[in-house]
Design brief:
binds oxonic acid, TIM Barrel, 312 residues, 19% strand, eight-stranded parallel beta sheet
C-alpha cells in the first residue's frame, strides 16, 4: 500500500508529521519525532531571531471529553540559531521543515535571508498565523500585508517555501487569499493553524483555563476538524496544482487523516493528539488510515487525494 506524499523535490515515505509547536521545541523532541518509523518528517517550533520564553503559564489546556485544546504559548522557542544548527547537523533521510515566525517583517526577512544563504536543504514554513502574541495580528488575515511580505521574500528566496495559514471562514476570503498565493512560486501551504482566540471555562472555579490574554487562546483538536477540512478543500480547489497542501487540524483518527487527503492534503500534521499520545500516535493513525483504504480496496493515497465527492 502506497501511503507516501510529495512536495517539490521531496518524497515523504509517510505523510504524517508533528504540527509546529508540538513536540519540536528542543533537539530531544525533534529527534524523537524523526526517530518514529511512522513519521515522514518533522517541523521545528516556529523560530524568532532570539530565544523567547513565551507567554506566562498556564498557557496550554486539554479540553474535557477529548474535544481538543486551547493554547496561548506565545512563540516560546530556543531562537533561530538553535534550530539552524539542528537542521544543518542532523543526519536524517527524512525531509525536514524549518518554521519561522518573526514578530516583524524585517525579522522574517532576516531569518529567511540567513536560511537562503545557508546549506539548509529542507523546506521552510513561514508562519503567518500565530494568534497568541499579544498586540500582534495574524498577518495572513491581512491580504495586502501577505502579498507585500511574499513579494519581498521571493525577491531573494529560492529554496522550497510554504506558508502556515490561519483558518478562513468566508468563501470570499478563500478567493482572496488564493489570489495572493497563486502569484508566488510557493511549494506548499499549511492549513490550518489553530482557530484563534477561543475561550474555555473551568466549571469548578468559573475561571478561564489559561492565563495569557484573559484566557483567549488558539483552538485545536477534534473541535476544529470541520474547519480544517473546509480550508484544505477550498484551497485545493483554488490554488495552482504546483502549490501542495499540508492538512493540519482535528486529526485524532485514521479516518480524519483520510478525510484531509480526500479534501486534497499531500501531507497531514498532528498537533493536539500528539500532545495527548506522544509519538506512538503516528503508528496508530497510519494503521487506521491503511484500514480505511483497505475497506474500499484502495492501494494508495493517490487514488483518494482530492477525490471528495459532492452531491450533484
Ligand atoms: O502559530 C502558532 N499557533 C498556535 O496555536 N500557538 C503557537 C504559539 O502560541 O506559540 N503559535
Amino acid at each position: 500500500m502506497d501511503l507516501t506524499g510529495q512536495i517539490a523535490n521531496f518524497h515523504f515515505n509517510h505523510i504524517l508529521l508533528n504540527a509546529a509547536g508540538v513536540k519540536c521545541q528542543t533537539t530531544a523532541e525533534l529527534d524523537q519525532v524523526l526517530a518514529s518509523p511512522y513519521s515522514g518528517s518533522v517541523v521545528t517550533k516556529s523560530a524568532t531571531p532570539m530565544t523567547r520564553p513565551g507567554n506566562p503559564s498556564p498557557r496550554y489546556y486539554q479540553l474535557p471529553e477529548e474535544l481538543g485544546s486551547v493554547n496561548s504559548m506565545g512563540l516560546p522557542n530556543e531562537g533561530f540559531a538553535y534550530y539552524l544548527d539542528y537542521v544543518l547537523n542532523k543526519k536524517t533521510d527524512k525531509p525536514v521543515f524549518f518554521s519561522v515566525a518573526g514578530l516583524t517583517k524585517d525579522d522574517n526577512l532576516a531569518m529567511l535571508m540567513e536560511l537562503e544563504q545557508s546549506n539548509f536543504n529542507g523546506l521552510v514554513e513561514l508562519n503567518l498565523s500565530c494568534p497568541n502574541v499579544p498586540g500582534k495580528p495574524q498577518t495572513a488575515y491581512d491580504f495586502e500585508a501577505t502579498r507585500a511580505i511574499l513579494t519581498e521574500v521571493f525577491s531573494f528566496f529560492t529554496k522550497p517555501l510554504g506558508v502556515k495559514l490561519p483558518p478562513y471562514f468566508d468563501m470570499v476570503h478563500f478567493d482572496m487569499i488564493a489570489a495572493v498565493l497563486n502569484d508566488f512560486p510557493l511549494a506548499f501551504v499549511n492549513t490550518i493553524n489553530s482557530i484563534g482566540n477561543g475561550l474555555a471555562i473551568d466549571p469548578h472555579t468559573d475561571t478561564v483555563v489559561i492565563k495569557p490574554k484573559g484566557g483567549f487562546g488558539g483552538l485545536g483538536g477534534s473541535l476544529v476538524k470541520a474547519t480544517a477540512l473546509a480550508n484544505v478543500r477550498a484551497l485545493r480547489e483554488r490554488l495552482n496544482e504546483s502549490i501542495k497542501i499540508i492538512g493540519t487540524g482535528g486529526v485524532t483518527s485514521g479516518r480524519d487523516v483520510y478525510d484531509l487527503v480526500l479534501c486534497g492534503a499531500d501531507l497531514v500534521e498532528v498537533g493536539t493528539q500528539l500532545m495527548v499520545e506522544d509519538t506512538p500516535v503516528f503508528e496508530r493513525l497510519e494503521g487506521e488510515l491503511a484500514n480505511e483504504l483497505d475497506k474500499k480496496d484502495y492501494q494508495s493515497l493517490a487514488e483518494i487525494r482530492g477525490k471528495l465527492q459532492i452531491i450533484s
